[in-house]
Amino acid sequence: QGPLVESGGGSVQAGGSLRLSCTASRSVFSMSAMAWYRQVPGKEREFVARSNVGGSPNYADSVKGRFTISRDNAKNTVYLLLNNLKPEDTAVYFCNADGRVTGLPHNYWGQGTQVTVSS
């Protein structure tokens, strides 16, 4: 296993919901901005949402009002709740732990989890 372990992808119909999870070690989690990105074949990986260390979350415009990112510090886990899913949300979703925001060099990626939304 890598430093980040993801789970929670799957297949749903449009309008449905999924929750993604990403767990890290305590040392990584506590000192990282935790984020989610997504990628479809042939396109660049794109930012979805970020949970900052002690700050407000950030969202891509395309998911604002539908997705919610949250951190559980006791479980060293970041969640991404995907509501009102659309077919264009279909992608592989990657968790990211960026330690550079706290002066550390790491920038870890999870293995990716597939989200498929059918119309």
If you had to describe this structure to a student in words, what would you say it looks like?
By secondary structure, the protein is mainly beta. The model has no long low-confidence stretch (mean pLDDT 95). It contains one helix and eleven strands. It starts with a strand and ends with a strand. The strands form two sheets. Strands 2, 4, 5, 6, 9, 10 and 11 form a seven-stranded mixed β-sheet that branches. It has a four-stranded antiparallel β-sheet with strand order 1-3-8-7.
Reconstruct the topology from this structure:
Elements: E1 4-7, E2 10-13, E3 18-24, H1 26-29, E4 33-39, E5 46-51, E6 58-59, E7 67-72, E8 77-82, E9 91-98, E10 107-109, E11 113-118
Parallel strand pairs: 2-11
Antiparallel strand pairs: 1-3, 3-8, 4-5, 4-9, 5-6, 7-8, 9-10, 9-11
